[in-house]
Amino acid sequence: MLLSLSGRNFFTFKEFYVEFSGGMNVITGESGAGKTVFLKALWAVIGYPPSWEGEDRGSVEGNFTIEGNLIKRLAELGIEIDEDQLFVGVSFTGQRTIYRLNGHIVSRQIVQLLFKDTIEIHSQHSNVSLLDSAGHYKILDHSLEGELCLTEYRELYADYSKIKRELESMEIDPAKINREIDFLTFQINEIEEAFLKEDEDVLLEARYKKYKNAKFLLETFRELGDVLKDGEISVYNSLNDALSLIMKVEGFGYSEWLQNLQVAIEEMESLYNKVSDESDLLEIDDEEFKAVEDRMTIIQGLKRKYGQTVSDILKSCEAFRNELELLQELEGRKGLLEKSIEAILEKLKIVGKTLDKRREERGIEIAKDVRSHLEDLKMKGAELRFQLQREEEPKSYGISKISMLVKTNPGMDFMEIGRVASGGELSRYLLALESALQNQLNMSVIVFDEVDSGVGQRLGAVVADKLLQISSGLQTIVITHLPQIAEKSERHFAVRKEQSQFDTISVIEQLSGSTRDKELEEMSGQTGQIER
Question: Is the separation of the CB atoms in 27 and 477 below 8 Å?
Fold first, then answer.
């Protein structure tokens, strides 16, 4: 329920504040006084702000009770409100429009979602849900809520949608799948044929480094062996020559020299033996060295393709196997899903037909009720009916599209309600529908702008009674020119223009007593009191 609507510096309104009743509220005033501007303020607080130009600042605020559908919608949007009232504030500047819910900034789209199907504004210049064929099925389904066929259809369609999405994700060119399978198979074979072992590259690199260094060491050790003993001109031979010479002079007191030389020969032989032993240890098989080189070449080639280490290559191979397994299972999985979706489709069609039947029955009941209201509104012979047109495939709402069709006079063809040419006829159809459906829609506020368009004085009382009937269960706001409607309201507001030398502003005030009587007299064109 809308408790109040206020604004400041909003177009022609410098300031306004209106408190609404829970029943029928009417807004009257001369053309051009500002009723349309006031309606713009209401549009703004439900998420549809008007264009705002210039640097001037303005604002509007709507105050709502938090109940019914609004509680559910707040929960769906994840919005927590501690208070029992909801304040929707809209601030306008030349650059942007800012929305706040109880002081917290939110997006305009959030506000639109919050009030969707909660507040309905019927205007000659707006799109209303009753004219939107995409939502006509909701009118029938509201009274069917909880029935097995409706619940079962929704559950089946949820399963159908899930499988359908999975199938759509599998829509891949078979030739492309085969190419991917061939390439994955090649990659796996290339790695498996190498018979890699964990950390093999580390061990090979160590061996290769050792073998590579061994060649250099062996050549050095051979040269050293030649210098020490194996060469024709060697240290060993030279020391032996020196030994022979010292032995010639040993008897002359040089025996100590002989001992020194013998020690040198022993040290040299010890070094020579160490070089020989190390050479034996470093002796490598050329074929083995080549095998190590060839193995490293293979591993380096795999590293360039599949990873920096043997461990990475093995992980890549495992990933390729998993991917190949998924691709190979794809066709099998696709076949199972196709069988499942066929079975669900059959169930959907069966349940959908049952749902269609219940909707047709409910549509006939509503059409009958609407026809009686149309007759009250002096549209004898006018009819409404719900058309069910089978869809090519099941939709979220059912197996048939539902549209409301109307005909305004006997003998005319039925056409979609949104194509009704006469504004007065459309107003009466909408009023008849709202009268028939007033207890079935989850709305909390309904607004009629120009509902009396094309409606003469003689029909005014009938229209007023219909609006009063609607307002008995739903807060109703009516912008009207008819006194018969205005006098039935719980609260009556009038919009007036006040002009000065420099400016024209709009004001809105609640009428009661004599001021209200005067307004009703002026609306009726009578000078006396309106009969009640």
Answer: yes
In this structure, the strands spanning 85-92 and 58-65 are antiparallel
In sequence order, the 6+-apart residues with CB closer than 8 A to the CB of 331 are none
pLDDT 10s digits, 244-276: 999 988 888 888 898 899 999 999 999 999 999
Q: Using a CB cutoff of 8 Å and minimum separation of 24, what contacts does 98-103 make?
A: 99/47
Average pLDDT across the chain, whole number:
86
H helical segments located in 193-309: 200-225, 235-248, 255-282, 286-306
Nearest partner of 464 among 441, 440, 448, judged by Cα: 448
Average pLDDT over residues 35-51: 93
Instruction: Tell me which fold the domain 1-118+445-458+477-532 belongs to.
Output: Rossmann fold (3.40.50)
* pLDDT tens string 119-149: 888 775 554 566 777 888 888 888 788 889 9
| DSSP letter, residue 47 | T
The three-state secondary structure class of 482 is coil
Q: Which residues pair with 60 in a beta bridge?
A: 7, 90
Gap between the Cα atoms of 50 and 53, Å rounded: 10
Local confidence band at 96 (pLDDT 50, 70, 90 cut-offs): confident
DSSP string for 71-126: HHHHHHTT----SSEEEEEEEE-SS-EEEEETTEEE-HHHHHHHHTTTEEEE-TTS
pTM tops 0.85, yes or no? no
Separation between Cα atoms, residue 141 and residue 359, nearest integer Å = 7
- H helix intervals, 123-173: 136-141, 148-169
Rounded to the nearest 5 degrees, what angle is found at the Cα of 65, between the Cα atoms of 64 and 66?
A: 110
What CA–CA distance (Å, rounded) separates 7 from 130? 29
CB atoms within 10 A of CB 276: 15
First to last CA, the chain: 29
Measured CA to CA, the distance from residue 342 to residue 184 in angstroms comes to: 33
Alpha carbon distance 416, 344 (integer Å): 33
CA distances from 364 to 133, 386, 407, 420 (A): 17, 8, 15, 21
Is 163 within 8 Å of 390 (Cβ atoms)? no
Q: Which residue has the tokens 């709202």?
A: 434
